[in-house]
Amino acid sequence: MPSQSLTGLTERLKDIDQLLNAHTAITKFKKAESAANRAGGGLAQLTPIIEALVNDPGKGKPKEVEALNRAAFVLLMAHFQGFVEDLHREIGFILLNGKVNDPDAIIKLVKVSRSNPHVDVINKMFSGLAIYEVMDDVRWQKCSNNTVKTRLKGYLETRNKIAHGSRESITKKKVTQLKDFVEKLAEKLDSTVCKKANSILGYDPW
Fold it and tell me: What is the b/e burial string over 167-189, where b = at least 16 CB atoms within 10 angstroms of the residue's CB?
């Protein structure tokens, strides 16, 4: 079974589904507007709102709702960071329960605060709870550990560029690929932490 942290992430990722659905609805609206104009009618009242979101990449290329894509990309990385922090806190309370007077204080002490969830940051956080090199065991079919680390680094770099004002070109496909990556990475990180904690506790924490 998954941790409470992973269950929470799954729920929060519905935000991304809403943005992707909005993307689809807006692009469908643009097609409907074109059809209405060709038929002699129009959707004039809503057009200015849609135009504010839709970026025209040029003749012969599909329109992309860049603002929504960039928002979804940044939100995805924020949700992943929140998951890492939640997972660290959840396993911390399980490992420290009955062993220290104030588990929360210890967890906060070993947490790497205000840092993007890079591989070394995640490893350092969990090593403070005696769960070592947790990111070094994360891999899945057709995605080696080195590929996982490289992709995470690249996604974080793109997220930071967007957050600092860079108008990075983000397509709906890129958002979908990132969502798939975040879901898989979170799932594998969750199971890896569970396995490593078992060696300490003698049983699975979840």
Answer: eeebbbebbeebbebbbebbbbb
Tokens standing for 152? 């995470």
d(CA 149, CA 141): 15
Q: What are phi and psi of 187, to 5 degrees?
A: -60, -45
| 50 burial level (CB within 10 Å; 0-12, 13-18, 19+) | middle
Q: Using CA of residue 161, residue 165, residue 169, residue 170, what is the dihedral sign? A: positive
| Cα 22 to Cα 17, 25, 29, 44, 203, distances in angstroms | 8, 5, 10, 19, 44
pTM for this one? Answer: 0.82
**Cβ neighbours of residue 60 closer than 8 Å, sequence gap 6 or more:** none
Of the candidates 120, 92, 84, 116, the residue with the CA atom closest to the CA atom of residue 12? 84
Q: What is the pLDDT of residues 163-183, one digit of tens each?
A: 888 888 898 899 999 999 999
